[in-house]
Amino acid sequence: MSQSNVDVSEIHWLMDMFQTVDVGLVVLSADYRIQVWNGFMENHSGLTPRQVRDRYLFDLFSEIDEDWLRRKCDPVILLKNRAFTIWEQRPYIFKFRNYRPITGSAEYMYQNSTIFPLTDTMGKVTHLCLIIYDVTDVAVSRIELESMNGQLRTLSKTDFLTSLNNRGCWEEALINEYKRIKRSGHHSTLLMCDIDHFKRVNDTYGHAAGDAVIQQVATAVKKNLRSTDVAGRYGGEEFAVLLLDTTVDQAMFFAERLRKNVEAIAVEYNQQILRVTVSIGVAEYHSQMGEYRDWIEAADKALYQSKAAGRNCITKAE
Predict the structure, then answer these.
(1) Which residues form the GGDEF domain (predicted)?
(2) Cα 249 to Cα 38: distance, rounded to the nearest angstrom
């Protein structure tokens, strides 16, 4: 075989690989006009090399952020260095739809890319080559894992029945607030709230009915919260609400509104209407509280005074 035949065969092989390789290959002129467009790019864009030849990249693909890509490419031309983009920073350069069945949850193809300079015989950079990698499988797996971890973190802090903070999470928030106002001298108030005669509900109608009542009371608590307040299930039928930057007098308005909301609840269970009330104890932080547990104890003591006073009422800690 002659040398010319060998050269032609090698060129044929190279062109065949160029068209069939499972990455996108794009060559741009220095003024960002498309010169080369391989099979991967044609398959995912629906545009043939003839259709894109000499077209201005940013006119053809308006989804590309021109300023961003130029900031990536200009140093490649000036310094003759490679540049890289990753999907975590920007999901894609070319907005191609995702057609992979395994990662069908992704609407678009996530992409990494490498950008490197192409020089002429004099060493001057005349073109840019972009290699586009489809990393949808990796991206979707990472996103799903992070989502699951986020859900697990949420579940570890959430009471399953009420979707309020569980005791550990709520108590941690109380500790942090105790430390904060101990330094700042601000006002914050703690409410302890207990469903009246709850054992009677469980004994008469069963624990499922009791759970329904707890959920409805929790909904009333959430309905009255501000974005800065922290509420949690303290245990059984008892709830705790931490009202940040709130005086005891302001907290009494919150407590009364909550008491009325619960009193108006009608829980339908097995074609019966169940009604309940709550007793509430209210305690504002004061400097004589040596530890955060003293704050809980003050609110709890006020709560039991409400119970002793006939229930369905509010008591302010002394």
Answers:
(1) 186-318
(2) 72
Per CATH, the architecture of 3-143 is what?
2-Layer Sandwich (3.30)
- The tens digit of pLDDT for each residue in 262-306 reads 999 999 888 889 999 999 999 999 999 999 999 999 999 999 999
Six token digits for residue 85: 């983009």
Q: How far apart are CA 101 and CA 78, in angstroms?
A: 41
Catalytic site residue from 237, 284, 297, 318:
237
Cα distance between residue 255 and residue 201, in whole Å: 23
Instruction: Assess whether 237 carries a catalytic annotation.
Output: yes
Q: What is the CATH number of domain 158-316?
A: 3.30.70.270
pTM for this model (two decimals): 0.58
User: What number of other Cβ atoms are within 10 A of residue 151's Cβ?
Assistant: 11
What is the rounded CA–CA span in Å between residue 307 and residue 193? 10
The tokens describing 286, both together, are 């004061």
Cβ burial, residue 178 (10 Å; 0-12/13-18/19+):
buried
Neighbouring residues of 112: CB distance < 8 A, sequence distance ≥ 6: 84, 85, 86, 87, 132, 133, 135
Q: Where are the domains of the chain?
A: 3-143, 158-316
Cβ neighbourhood burial of 5 (10 Å; 0-12, 13-18, 19+)? exposed
pLDDT digits (tens, 9 = 90+) for 41-67: 999 999 999 999 999 999 999 999 999
Tokens of residue 31, six digits: 């003024």
What was the pLDDT predicted at 8? 44
Let me know the angle formed at the C-alpha of 179 by 175 and 180, rounded to the nearest 5 degrees.
115
